[in-house]
Structure formats: structure tokens, C-alpha cells
Design brief:
With 156 residues, the protein is mainly α. It has 5 helices and 2 strands, in the order H-E-E-H-H-H-H. A hairpin with a 4-residue loop joins strand 1 and strand 2. Helix 2 runs parallel beside helix 5. The radius of gyration is 19 Å and the shape is globular.
């Protein structure tokens, strides 16, 4: 069985993630250009989505233990990674359900959809999709570090 080279996949995912973040953080005018006038879909929506999915796939390409888990802990981390992937893939659809539009604009509206209360949930979900992968890396790194310290050492 041949192993898939992970370096190029990881590099591509990180490049895509940081390019998307750069556009978002600078407030690029490209984000507001309509991709589809009929749907009211600005380029910012797929760009943000692509960045979120790229971040989760960077975890995949950056960890051999996720791709081929050997331990019970690795299998649990792989399940957690699958949840992160599902959250990232579903982000535009959950966001649409909250906003009622593809530009994710909210305001003072009757009912929940498109309201300021829905906006709160939109921001919570969006930040979760962005921050949970970072938390995943931290927790997994700490687990590996602590597990390495508790294993018996050979020699003096």
C-alpha cells in the first residue's frame, strides 16, 4: 500500500486557509461581489466556507494518527475530527437556516430566522467552526505530550 504524501496536502490546506483569512480580515471588496444575483450569494460565503473546510483538512494532512489510527485515543480523535469536518461542511447551510439568506444578514425581524437572536447563534456556530479545530490541536498535543511522559522509559 502506498502512502499518500501529506506535505503538499497540508501546505495547500494552510495556503487556502490563510488566503481566505487574509481576505476576510482585510475586508476585501471581493467578499461582497455577487457570485449569484438570483440567490443573493456573495463571494464571501464560499470563500469563508472554503477556509473553514481547509482548516479542518489541514488537521487531517498534518496527522498520520488521524488517517491511520492505531490506538483507542487516536480513534476517538478521528471521531472528533469527523465532527469538526461535518460542522465545517454544514456551516453554509446552518447559517442559511439561521439568516434566511446567503449573505447572512440579520436585523430586527419578527420570528427567529434573520433576527438578532439568530445572529447570536450564527456567530457562536461560526466561531466554533473556526476555534474548535485549534482547540483540537492543543488538546491532542497536550495529550500526546503527557502520554509520552507517563510511558516507561528504557535505560537509566
Amino acid at each position: 500500500m502506498t502512502r499518500m504524501p501529506t506535505g503538499p496536502g497540508l501546505a495547500l490546506c494552510l495556503l487556502v486557509f490563510f488566503a481566505c483569512m487574509g481576505l476576510l480580515l482585510t475586508g476585501s471588496s471581493l467578499l461582497t461581489v455577487a457570485l449569484s444575483e438570483r440567490l443573493g450569494l456573495p463571494w464571501g460565503t464560499p470563500i469563508t466556507w472554503l477556509g473553514m473546510v481547509a482548516l479542518v483538512f489541514a488537521l487531517w494532512f498534518g496527522s498520520a494518527a488521524l488517517r491511520a489510527p492505531r490506538t483507542h485515543a487516536d480513534r476517538n480523535y478521528r471521531r472528533a475530527w469527523a465532527v469538526l469536518l461535518a460542522m465545517a461542511v454544514l456551516w453554509p447551510f446552518v447559517s442559511y437556516a439561521l439568516a434566511g439568506n446567503w449573505s447572512y444578514s440579520f436585523g430586527q425581524r419578527e420570528g427567529f430566522q434573520g433576527s438578532s437572536a439568530a445572529a447570536d447563534w450564527f456567530f457562536r456556530y461560526s466561531f466554533s467552526v473556526l476555534l474548535l479545530p485549534l482547540l483540537f490541536v492543543f488538546v491532542r498535543s497536550m495529550h500526546r505530550l503527557l502520554a509520552g511522559r507517563s510511558s516507561p522509559r528504557s535505560g537509566p
